[in-house]
Amino acid sequence: MGLPKNKDKANFFSVAFDLISTEKSLSYELYVNASNQEGREHFVRIYPMNEALSDNEVEEFRDKYRTVYVLEEHRSIYLKSLTTNEKFTDERKTDVIKDSAIKHLTTLFDDTRELNTDILMETIENCRETVSAMVDVIEDYSVNQLRELIGNLSFHDFYTYDHSVNVSLYCVILLKQVKPDVSKEEMTLIGMGGLLHDLGKVEVPTSIINNTGKLSDEQFAVIKKHPGAGVRILMEKLADYPKKEDISTIMRVVGEHHENEDGTGYPKGLAGNDIHFYARICAVADFFDAITTKRSYSEVVTPNEAVTIMERSVGKKLNRQIFDAFSRDVVRIYGKKAATRDLPENFEPSVPHNVLPFTALKAQKLNYNILGDGEKKNDYGSVKKK
Ligand SMILES: [Fe+2]
Ligand SMILES: [Fe+2]
To answer: What is the CATH number of domain 89-385?
Structure first.
């Protein structure tokens, strides 16, 4: 038994017994809460770093203790040991990584205390570590595999958190689809942009965020401020952030993810190449997640329906090159079927929906090739090899 250390619960996070690495020497310390008084924690080290832990010992811990903990300062080492261990499934790994991401988002969205420069800088660094662990697990995934993985992850109460993690994951994979030789640093950076894209929603009252009924023009005007608010927060608090270029890229994703290809978006009405490429990827990810991820009571669309619906926004809201890379992947698995419903042209992925505002599908000829070279499609149809 080690000495008691850091009694505060905030310095620890709990880990699942079956996700503790055995065989190799342990790269983090293990703690238990030895206090049986609720609200009065007394953390005690039960296993030191750099010693190999056996499966039997883990079993003993499981019998003896309800929960084991790892120090917050060892979180990134813990994540590394998790993602590099082939014994664990990607689903379990991603669940733990998602928990980390949610913890960081909770810090950012905590409106009970002021988000100061120190906290923000530290949280951004933590986000980088978390997203980098995420990239290790999912970098070779297709959009479809990713969608399935996301569907199996545990959900949290606050929609924005789940949504931000999903968008981050989709951003990484979409960038990889559009640019197959992309570096791990670039994937991590766009993943951070995706994770933080809705940061400005911290300034939108929860009554509006959770309002799934019809929003008034004033309420919608408040929602529309979130890209600008996110940029302002980053700019004000991170003036001294050492990795200036990274922050300016993240700021552009945060500020430009609701700009449209044709200049009809907000807040600035930027068009085409004036919108950062990562922000245009984020727009596709944002749209797709908003209509395919199941929320309470909300009806969602299937992936192939999502493609048909989103296709109508190509060139208006969405960038063609990015959409093509994305849809190619989805269509290859699910086939392209005619959707029976549509969403209005002015559909806003940033507005909460209790039920998606479906409309009847207008007949429309889809005349561009969403499949890759060497493949031909008939109108809605089956894929034929040349
Ligand atoms: Fe947004
Ligand atoms: Fe979003």
So the answer is: 1.10.3210.10
